[in-house]
């Protein structure tokens, strides 16, 4: 028995070396293998989902526009969409990616979150490219739930199929970064009107992976160096931020003092010392959406928005803000029209 136990691994290696194990995707798995793999997958996802906490109000699917465009660019190829059937190559994968409209209902929200964030090993299902961006993954889960009943016409309208498939880089950007607060999805910032230097720097940061966003990483992977400079230049010459938001509100006393003088006792720097001024590497804030501003400040606070010298500067400036102060400042900047 000892000899047999010692030989078993050698025999295993020998069989693998001889090349008689079939690794092709043709013919599918035996029924029992298929059952076992799916059972293992479901159990693993179920266990991983136990520690996940759903953010409150995520069901309201506020980010349908950005998530639909992303689905069209990154998921529909494999899973199909209300507007497009799965292609024969994708159906020949092992396992084939399912039509998600049929399967989303089999999973709890937390389980969908785990699948979209971590992907599925040995199946071809990719993990979320923006590491640490749980907020983006939740937005995708909310979209998947809407997808179940979405009509082809509605899907087409949201995913901007004509913009993203026209092959024109700029109209692809506009599918998510459309002008004006009304048309804008609140997680996609207004980019028109930011400086050329800041826009180009941000795009390079997404490309290097030093700034994490699954949405933008997919977009920039398709841009050449020249495209980065050209698109940054294009949006810098427009005045999106300048024309947005007519409803200026002045902040309360605490907000204004944070903006203008900061809070020296708590080591919070004055926002206005850097922002909405003349340094082209410091982004303009006035007129951005509240949702976007809050998310970005929280990322900086947790040191999750990149490791460039400018990001570190900003992280230090806001490290000691309380959650209430973050909400205050976001409200304030979201309501300000920009003075150039
Ligand atoms: C390269 C092809 C591919 C891409 C791209 C892809 N998936 Fe998948 N996906 C798969 C495969 C394969 C499975 C596994 C099917 C199985 O285990 O039976 C899967 C499974 C899933 C499941 C679990 C469904 C189920 O019931 O098994 C979800 C949810 C999912 N994908 C969502 C997404 C989302 C959202 C995107 C885009 C961000 C995406 N996928 C991109 C191939 C892909
Ligand atoms: C799928 C939707 C989508 C598309 C398409 C898209 N973006 Fe974005 N973009 C986003 C989201 C969402 C963010 C916020 C990401 C984050 O949290 O860092 C963003 C952020 C940015 C930023 C950072 C701005 C800032 O103030 O920090 C720049 C610059 C940008 N996008 C440029 C572009 C350009 C140029 C294109 C076209 C080539 C484009 N985007 C296409 C969704 C998109
Ligand atoms: C010392 C200068 C400095 C101070 C002070 C500062 N910031 Fe920043 N902030 C920056 C820089 C630089 C960036 C861009 C960092 C990067 O992308 O690498 C930034 C980025 C941001 C962003 C992301 C904007 C976008 O379009 O992506 C927000 C939101 C923000 N700051 C809010 C604030 C608030 C609110 C305050 C005041 C409490 C503040 N900042 C104080 C330098 C500063």
UniProtKB/TrEMBL annotation:
Keywords from the named record: Electron transport, Heme, Iron, Metal-binding, Transport
Domain Cytochrome c: 62-148, 162-239, 257-337
GO molecular function, one term: heme binding
SUPFAM superfamilies: Cytochrome c
InterPro entries, sorted: Cyt_c-like_dom, Cyt_c-like_dom_sf, Cytochrome_c_Oxidase_Subunit
Name listed for the protein in its UniProt record: Cytochrome C
Natural source organism: Ensifer canadensis
């Amino acid at each position: 028995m000892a000899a047999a136990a010692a030989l078993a691994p050698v025999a295993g290696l020998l069989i693998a070396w001889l090349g008689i194990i079939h690794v092709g995707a043709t013919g599918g798995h035996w029924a029992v293998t298929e059952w076992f793999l799916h059972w293992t997958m479901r159990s693993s996802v179920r266990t991983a989902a136990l520690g996940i906490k759903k953010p409150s109000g995520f069901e309201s699917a506020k980010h349908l526009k950005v998530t639909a465009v992303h689905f069209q660019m990154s998921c529909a190829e494999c899973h199909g969409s209300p507007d497009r059937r799965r292609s024969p190559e994708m159906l020949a994968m092992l396992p084939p990616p399912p039509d998600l409209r049929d399967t989303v209902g089999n999973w709890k929200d937390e389980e969908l979150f785990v699948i979209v964030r971590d992907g599925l090993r040995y199946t071809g299902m990719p993990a979320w490219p923006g590491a640490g961006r749980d907020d983006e993954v939740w937005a995708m889960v909310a979209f998947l739930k809407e997808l179940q009943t979405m009509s082809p016409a509605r899907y087409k309208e949201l995913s901007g199929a004509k913009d993203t498939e026209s092959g024109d880089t700029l109209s692809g950007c506009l599918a998510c970064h459309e002008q004006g607060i009304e048309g804008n999805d609140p997680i996609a910032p207004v980019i028109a009107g930011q400086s050329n230097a800041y826009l180009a720097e941000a795009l390079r940061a997404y490309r290097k992976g030093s700034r994490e966003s699954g949405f933008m990483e997919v977009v920039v992977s398709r841009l050449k160096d020249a495209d980065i400079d050209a698109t940054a230049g294009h949006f810098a010459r427009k005045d999106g931020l300048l024309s947005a938001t007519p409803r200026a509100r002045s902040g309360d006393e605490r907000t204004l003092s944070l903006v203008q003088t900061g809070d020296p006792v708590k080591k919070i720097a004055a926002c206005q010392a850097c922002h909405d001024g003349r340094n082209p590497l410091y982004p303009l804030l006035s007129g951005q959406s509240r949702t976007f501003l809050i998310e970005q400040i929280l990322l900086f606070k947790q040191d999750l928005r990149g490791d460039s010298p400018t990001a570190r500067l900003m992280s230090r400036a806001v490290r000691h803000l309380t959650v209430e102060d973050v909400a205050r400042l976001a409200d304030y900047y979201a309501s300000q029209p920009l003075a150039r």
